[in-house]
Each structure stands twice: as C-alpha cells, then as structure tokens.
Amino acid sequence: MSFYERHIFFCVNERDEGQMCCNASGGGKMLNYAKDKIKALQADGPGKVRVNKAGCLGRCDKGPVAVVYPEGVWYSFVDEEDIDEIVDSHLIKGEVVERLKV
Amino acid sequence: MSFYERHIFFCVNERDEGQMCCNASGGGKMLNYAKDKIKALQADGPGKVRVNKAGCLGRCDKGPVAVVYPEGVWYSFVDEEDIDEIVDSHLIKGEVVERLKV
Prior knowledge:
2 copies of one chain form a homodimer.
Chain A: E1 6-11, H1 27-41, E2 49-54, E3 65-69, E4 73-76, H2 80-93
Parallel strand pairs in A: 1-2
Antiparallel strand pairs in A: 1-3, 3-4
C-alpha cells in the first residue's frame, strides 16, 4: 500500500493578471477549506489522507480541478458543498462523486 | 484509465531560511530537470506522463522526495542520474526503481 491511503492535489496555478486559471477560479480557497476539514477529521491520529497544492495540472479547460490518487479521479468544483462531498464520500469512504467528475 | 498514465509530484516546499526541506536539498532543481526530459521525450504527441511540483508532501525526513501515481511509489534522489533512472524506467516503462524507493 502507498504511504497515504488517498492523496488529493489541487491545482493552484497562477497566471498573469487577467488570465483565468485554477487559482483565480477558486482552487486555492477550496484547497485551504479541504485542508482544514481533513485536519479536523484526522485530529486523533496519523493521517491516511493527504491534501496538497500542485502546480498547473494541465486541465485548465476544466478548472478549477483536483485529482485524487491512487484512483486517478479528476474533479471540478464550485463551492464548499462540493468539497464536503469529495472529502466525505471519496477521501474518507472511497466512494467516487460521479456528479463532480471531469 | 486516468487522464495521465503516470503522474509524478516533486516536493518543492520551502521553509524559513536555515531549515532544510525538499527544495533546499534539490527538489526544485530535479523537478526542472525531469520536466525538460519528459518534454523532450514526449515532443511528438500528447503526453501520457505529467511532471508536477507540489507543496510539502509530509515526508521531510526522506527528502528530497517525489511520488509517482497511480502506483504510489515514493522516491528520494540525489542527482540527475537518479532522475534519469526514475524517468526512463518507471515513468516511461512502468518499472519501479527499487534502489531509490523510500
């Protein structure tokens, strides 16, 4: 088994002013929200889930995006409710959130 | 199948001056070397391998580190020869480099 049971990477890429990219469309904000939520859920022991920021993931047309490994499932999201569902269903229980897949 | 056949994340975390971390011990430099190498190898078509930078991967004691998904194999490396082996063997051919695993 890998070191982490599940590992999610949020694209937080930034471009020159005026060009949209994952960070400008909410990637960084949602990353922080997910980090705090996972930290609270895993407060009692070593984390099996890791939340990370990443550079440009190369799927700008679907942004903001995050990818969950080892499954290799890609998500796009709008708000904190979407992140709640990705965390609660996929990261914790292993159930893919079909409606947010890209 | 996932969007990329293989996806490697290099920790390029930076700490306050004086504290060692993956970037200070070569993470960023080796990331750039791997990116250039993969770009050259995949010049003729859409890339099946993606090289990304990431924030702190939480394995500072083994740094500098990178993780390859979907396999979830972690590597530590010293120089460009190590990166050549990770790229040529694992990222391109799918053969894990046992000697660099952590």
